[in-house]
Design a protein that fits this description.
Strand order of the largest sheet of chain B: 5-15-14-12-11-8-7-6
Helix content of chain B: 25-40%
Number of strands of chain B: 16
Structural class of chain B: alpha/beta
Low-confidence stretches of chain B: none
Number of helices of chain A: 2
Number of strands of chain A: 11
CATH topology of the largest domain in chain B: TIM Barrel
Bound molecules: flavin mononucleotide
Oligomer: heterodimer
Largest interface: A-B, 42 and 32 residues
Strand content of chain A: 15-25%
Mean pLDDT of chain A: 96
Number of helices of chain B: 16
Shape of chain A: elongated
Largest sheet of chain B: 8 strands, parallel
Radius of gyration of chain B: 22 Å
Low-confidence stretches of chain A: none
Structural class of chain A: alpha/beta
CATH class of the largest domain in chain B: Alpha Beta
């Protein structure tokens, strides 16, 4: 195990040490102390590493992550795990806006709440939030799954493409073209799987499913008021 | 035709309600939806044709056209990047997406640019293997949609261009209509096949210049500070945008004027938003100069560049390089008269074709149709583009030598005069034969 103290080392030095493992992995475990909300911690990883951030992280923590497991033992700022490709990112506290934005794969678990636009433009990632998500979550979501164990803010799933959204609590409002859909056995199974991968003990049967009505997929004059 | 009618019949066409205006009113009345098209602004605007060079004579020394060297090479992105981009000519190929263009067209752009030592740029749709394979220098666009964005391609790029906007549609997002979403395009963008894809106009995970500075740092961290980062903006409030781009940490700023081409945008957007390229350059240069960053952060200008004179004029006004889109497509064969009959069958004509969004381009360029795409031979088309780029370079050099300059970047505003009051005011050079620059006090 290697440790970094971000009052002694720069984020650049940390990231370079993490990137240096991508060819040949010399060290798998990294503990990062005193992150003090600095930005861009542990972004661009491309190796089966395990990185523990012992405190709060700023913007874009674990951005574009591939293969690695990154755990933030605190809160995470804007765009955590943005454009993640694979691996797992876990936030023990809350996450700010745009968590998991545009991410293509992997699993993002937020044990607290997530701010606005959680999963915006997501492209295949699985996001599981134990608490609530803010407004416009999953805006233009293309693929993947968003699971919310608490409540969702306004305009959930606006202009949604093919993401499956599961919410246990109250949805303040649905965005354009997002509708509630039937929870069939395959969805219960999918959700059960997601919850168990995230290590969250919830009953899938208590969730509702939301998805795209696919009415805005092609320009139609009749839809002008929705554009 | 309109003159003929005037002479022989006395019929008079309204300048306000001319035939294309009337046709648009009829089209709107029939369909109930705005017109979407490709290409750039078609209206007449103050442009580089309104400027002239003052060749050397008694008070300035010209250089020998065929004997004395005139440097055309330029290095971009040496502010922060470990590996700046070195180009042999200061004319780059602008970002045009695979999706909007066929794979063959993208390959041809790569081949042509590489032949003459310049760069190409990806677009709203990710990086294709064809393009990376054929482009010795490839700029990877980072757009609001983030289609196909991934760290592996990011690290394969020679530079990253963060796109905030385009001259054809500052404030608008990308658009690719269903006809062009083939299996491959759909897969690259993670979208269902055949849908109308309207990409976002704002980046999903940052807002404003302070966030952008952090975003740029993230991109640098992911790429270990190796490659330059460009910021591309459509020309509107250019003076302020350039200052903010420099503050956010750009190595290179790309300014795209309102004449800039597009693959698909509402006509009202193309014709009514943004400022002419000519008006944007002096604003950008002023911003850079005031920050002490002119030539340190390089300026690339695009939007309506057609010939070596346009290139030389951009550089005289203070650009370090230019980018071309539409002209490069025409060099490949876009709008070629050879296909006139086929253009007419789809309601257009060679020289007028702008329905790139429909994907039925007879020249095989702005299409995903496999049969049409085959018509464009990427090797031949690439060579045509290389020839064209050589001509632009030779023309620009000719003008620079005539002004006594041994480097294109030594051209200066002092070498220029304007033909009209408007262009004098916008370009901030004197009206020809006077020492009057409208808007500036003596
Ligand atoms: C077919 C086509 C596709 C384009 N696609 C993109 C794109 O994906 N991203 C982008 O930033 N600009 C795009 N542009 C704009 C060009 O990058 C460039 O700004 C413009 O073409 C320059 O003006 P010009 O066409 O007059 O040379 C596109 C332009 C055309 C003609």
């Amino acid at each position: 195990m290697k440790t970094f103290d971000l009052t002694q080392n720069t984020v650049r030095e940390l990231n370079q040490a993490l990137h240096d493992q991508s060819g040949e992995c010399m060290e798998r475990e990294f503990d990062v102390f005193s992150p003090h909300g600095q930005h861009n911690i542990a972004c661009g990883l491309d190796q089966n590493l395990s990185v523990n951030i012992m405190g709060h992280a700023g913007y874009f923590c674990a951005g574009m992550n591939k293969k690695a497991t990154v755990t933030v033992h605190g809160n995470a700022g804007q765009g955590v795990a943005e454009n993640m490709m694979s691996g797992m990112v876990r936030i023990k506290g809350d996450a700010s806006q745009a968590a998991g934005a545009t991410a293509h794969g992997g699993l993002l678990v937020i044990e607290g709440n997530a701010g606005a636009r959680c999963g915006i433009s997501m492209k295949g990632v699985d996001i599981v939030v134990k608490g609530n998500v803010g407004h416009m979550s999953c805006f233009m979501g293309q693929a993947g799954n968003l699971v919310v164990c608490g409540d969702a803010g306004e305009a959930l799933g606006d202009s949604l493409y093919e993401v499956h959204i599961y919410v246990k609590g109250h949805v303040k409002s649905l965005g354009a073209d997002c509708v509630e859909k039937e929870m069939r056995p395959e969805h219960i199974k999918e959700l059960g799987n997601l919850l168990s991968r995230a290590g969250i003990d919830e009953d899938p049967a208590r969730f509702k499913r939301y998805g795209s009505a696919r009415q805005l997929y092609n320009f139609k004059v009749d839809n002008a008021s929705a554009y | 035709m309109s003159n003929e009618l005037n002479e022989h019949t006395g019929l008079r066409e309204s300048a306000t309600f001319d035939r294309s205006t009337m046709a648009e009113i009829r089209r709107a009345a029939e369909t109930g939806i705005y017109d979407i098209r490709g290409f750039g602004a078609k209206r007449k605007l103050p442009h580089f044709d309104d400027l002239l060079f003052l060749g050397a004579s008694m008070s300035r020394y010209p250089l020998e056209g065929y004997r004395e060297k005139c440097n055309t090479s330029v290095t971009l992105g040496n502010r922060f990047a470990k590996k700046p981009i070195k180009l042999d000519i200061p004319i780059t190929i602008a970002g045009m997406s695979f999706g909007a263009l066929s794979a063959n067209a993208k390959e041809a752009l790569g081949r042509g640019a590489s032949e003459v030592g310049t760069s190409t740029t990806t677009g709203d749709g990710g990086m294709t293997a064809e393009e990376r394979g054929q482009s010795k220098k490839l700029i990877y666009q980072y757009l609001p949609s983030r289609y196909g964005m991934n760290p592996d391609d990011l690290r394969k790029a020679d530079a990253i261009e963060v796109v905030l906007g385009q001259g054809a549609k500052p404030g608008g997002g990308g658009m690719l209509l269903g006809q062009k979403i083939s299996d491959r395009v759909a897969q690259m963008r993670t979208l269902p096949k055949g849908i109308d894809q309207r990409s976002a106009c704002r980046h999903p995970d940052w807002t404003g210049p302070d966030d952008l500075a952090i975003k740029i740092q993230e991109l640098r961290e992911i790429t270990d500070w190796q490659v330059p980062i460009y910021i591309k903006v459509g020309a509107t409030r250019t003076y302020y945008d350039v200052k903010l781009a420099v503050k956010a940490g750009a190595d290179v700023v790309v300014i795209d004027g309102m004449q800039g081409g597009t693959a698909a945008t509402q006509e009202v957007f193309i014709e009514h938003v943004g400022i002419p390229t000519l008006a944007a350059i002096p604003q950008a240069v002023q911003a850079l100069q005031e920050m002490g960053m002119h030539r340190k952060v390089q300026l690339i200008v695009s939007g309506g560049i057609r010939n070596g004179a346009d290139v030389a004029k951009c550089m005289a006004l203070g650009a370090d390089a230019v980018a071309i889109g539409t002209a490069a497509l025409i060099a490949l064969g876009c709008n070629h008269p050879r296909y006139d009959e086929e253009f007419r069958k789809i309601g257009s004509a060679a020289g007028f074709y702008d329905d790139y969004q429909e994907g039925r381009d007879p020249a095989g360029i702005s299409t995903q149709d496999p049969e049409l795409s085959k018509r464009l031979d990427p090797v031949e088309a690439g060579h045509r583009l290389a020839n064209y780029l050589r001509v632009l370079t030779l023309e620009a050099q000719t003008l620079a030598r005539a002004c006594g300059k041994n480097d294109l970047r030594n051209l200066e505003p002092e070498d220029l005069v304007a033909l009209t009051v408007e262009s004098a005011a916008m370009a901030r050079v004197p009206l020809a034969g006077t020492c009057w620059i409208p808007g500036q006090s003596f």
